[in-house]
């Protein structure tokens, strides 16, 4: 599974364990997600292109290396993706942001689109799609199909937790999409929730349950 990266950094694993605990408040869940997404952004942006830039240090002129953040579009799958977005934007503040709204039909577990707004010129930009949970893979697959209509230069997908069936579904439908996760959990339950998981990410971020 060459396009799959599990980010095993101890800080990521430590914070993820704190988030999984059922007694973590929304406040601490959100804070931890913010911290985790910054740490994961470090790994996910590892191959971003650098351009030489001439600068003045207090002592002399030199050529430094800089990224062009505007060439990056962060795509949040609403609503839980927004919890991930803030941390990523802290690290790459120049990135553009797109949103896609997909809800999961509770009967079929299929993704239904209700919102789609992307920055212009995606065909000249790299995209990173964020959603904390890769469960059935239906939302991720639908998001990639929709995003590909705009022909982005590249697509990466970042989540906190994934399960083998979700990974397989995304890899089969979109083998060109690189997947980054902090953990691969055991399985889905009958309601499409990840086990052992962390519960409903959106509810835990926004305190809606
Ligand atoms: N979405 C969630 O928020 N949690 C899961 O366990 C699966 C999908």
Please characterize this protein's 3D structure.
Strand 5 and strand 6 form a beta hairpin. The chain contains 6 helices and 14 strands. It has a single domain, classed as Rossmann fold (3-Layer(aba) Sandwich). By secondary structure, it is an alpha/beta fold. Bound molecules: uracil. The site of uracil (URA) has 10 residues, from helix 6.
Taken in chain order, the helices and strands follow as EHHEEEHEEEEHEEHEEEEH
Mean pLDDT: 94
Briefly, what CATH class? Alpha Beta
Unreliable stretches (pLDDT < 50, length at least 5) are none
Per DSSP E runs of 2 or more residues, the count of β-strands stands at: 14
Number of helices: 6
If classified by CATH, what would the architecture be?
3-Layer(aba) Sandwich
Q: Provide the helix percentage.
A: 25-40%
* Rg from alpha-carbon coordinates: 18 Å
Task: Please specify the SSE layout and strand pairing.
Elements lengths: L3 E3 L3 H11 L5 H19 L6 E6 L4 E6 L5 E7 L2 H11 L4 E9 L6 E7 L8 E5 L2 E2 L3 H11 L5 E5 L2 E2 L1 H10 L4 E4 L1 E2 L2 E2 L5 E2 L5 H6 L3
Parallel strand pairs: 1-11, 4-5, 4-7, 7-9, 8-10, 9-11, 10-12
Antiparallel strand pairs: 2-3, 5-6, 13-14
Helix pairs in contact: 1-2, 2-3
The protein binds uracil (URA).
Descriptive terms for the model:
alpha/beta, binds uracil, 209 residues, three-stranded parallel beta sheet, Rossmann fold
